[in-house]
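Why this split exists: single-chain examples teach little about how molecules sit against one another. For that reason, every record in the complexes split bundles all components of an assembly together and asks for one structure covering all of them. Below is a record exactly as it appears in the raw files.
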Amino acid sequence: MKYLSIILTVAAIAFSARAGGLNIVTTTSDLGSIAAAVAGDHAKVESICTGKEDPHHLQARPKYIMMARNADLWIRTGMELEIGWEMPVIDGSRNSNIRPGQPGHLDASTNIEKLDIPDAGTISRALGDVHAQGNPHYLTDPLNARLVARDIAERLAQLDPANAEAYRANAAAFQQRIDERIPEWTRAMAAFENQSIVTYHKSWIYFAKRFGMPIAIELEPKPGVPPSPAHLNQVVQTVQQQKIGVILQEPWYSKKPAQLVAGKTGARIVVAPIATGGDPAATDYFSLIDLIIQRLGGK
Amino acid sequence: MKSFIVPALAATGLFANTYADDTSLTAFNPAVSVIVDTVYYGENSSEGMSHLKEEMSGFGHVHADGEEHHHGFEEGFNMRHLELQFSAEVDSYFKASAIAAISEDGAEMETAEIETTCLPWGLQARAGKFFSDFGYINARHSHEWDFTDQPLIYELALGSHGLNEKGAQLSWLAPTPFYLLLGAEVFQGENEKLFTAVETDELPAHDGPGLGVGWIKFSPTLPGNHACQMGLFGAAGRHQEEHDGNGDGTADHWLDGYNAFWGGDAVYKYNSSRPYGQGDLTVQAEYLFRRTDLTVEQHDLLPALVGSDKVNEQDGFYLQGTYGFMPRWRGGLRLDMVGLTNSEQAPDGTDSSYGESWRSSAMVDFSPSEFSRIRFQVSNGDYETEDGTQNVWEGFIQLVVSLGAHGAHKF
């Protein structure tokens, strides 16, 4: 009888935690935006990154442990983007439902067509901060966001079968919005077709591939290594040779290297957020892509 | 029919074993990483820093079994560590990790721990040999420290390895709206300075475990990129010592009793949004008070002292800060003080009170990547010894690299 009452109490606590629907915690804010669109009113979505920080370099803070503690679903970008802080947060939360491999843990990169997968024979840390599984900045391609929405809906349907149809319908609506916007975005990006640009970090390759905009060179000599004077000279030469007009970078990087290159070449510096929340105007996934394209277009 | 199926299944099993894909086997290998930690060290004391630290008033002469255990730096090149780390999820119930510290003299097991991943209600249990989670810096490996050497109070009170023992831990993340973590630990009691059993006929034999530790960590949720954590801790356990009072090379008196320490820790971190650590700020401080309370069990030279008490009380703190002043570059300052309380009541009834020692340190380090770091550190201290105060300068150049699996660090 005593055990029964303990079990009932625990069940009541567990149930009350879920009474307001599922708790979803995403590592990055762009995942959070997609998850919120898919979950609708059936879940509360919180994101660890606000879009203002470089997700490579967060620290596993107690606040994140508090967010993870009551999560029913943890969604990560994967491909080692969060490797510096994810497991201390999950371990610290003592929430066994969201450990890798559990239904409450979704790696959003699972079904993505990955780019920049280094050759297993030559991969080395001498290449900089390369990720063995490929470049993790795949959400800059709206068609990848479309795929991730479906994966989130399927996982939510598994965790909360009662609302499965709602999740699938929300994901379908999200996908339809993407499909509607793609032609417009493609038109706006037509000016960049086969017009190379420079980026700070190798974080825009999925976006560039989607819209047919080649990236000639990065300001970082190697991923994760800050620009050096010798490398910036090489960038200046590349910009001059290929008549490149735009240097694209995230808000958290220093503008000095780009200003140096721009000063010598006349290229325009474009600072655009790469995740939702990285700019007051990037309130959700659609306004994020809108803003990136507007900024590239010089608006 | 049944007899037909069984050999067929057996055949598939055999096939699977013989022709298993290589990658399916390596996929379950634990994550492996190697830390190489080298230090170039110089100082200007007359007799050597490790020796001087053992002569410090109030802190010296707590050596348990007469074993000379210099773990300090030697002048010139030091190969501090080659740490070989393994870690993996064991199954859906446990994760485990082990660290072998390899030196030129051989290998020793630094840690080998098993931790639950499946307990409900915010509980987590751990067993094996591991660093106690009390305070802030104790559970951190030397390559994670912001300065090359450890805080003075830690080294003097607990020895160069900190509190790292065989035992078990239970911790609980309380279901409060703020972060509150409580932990209880039971250890065998083998710390070289504070908690040891000496195996000798002159002292009573005590079965382990001989040490209990409790701690609490609290973190209010701060806005933006600010974070902080505060903690309180305490520990108490059995301790035994044997001493050579007349210096003839053999032990002549033996003590048995209880030691304890308690204190608090606080850390504040600002994580700037900028890459390469630029603008990141960390300020941390810890205070530790220790009391040793021993009774003379046997005294070959002065038998009248048997049954009388020897009580020591010492304390100390450190306060340090680091700031990322340029991409990949950090600078840091640290102040150490020990012996703010520094008293000794000898078995013969004499009470002594000693002065305090302090040390200040400055460091600059450069991390070309997340996997390498070079650090330059200078320390200057006034150390209170029986022969008066000694001022010593120390200099360190440290190079640490990490090979293999990309580890994550906790807060």
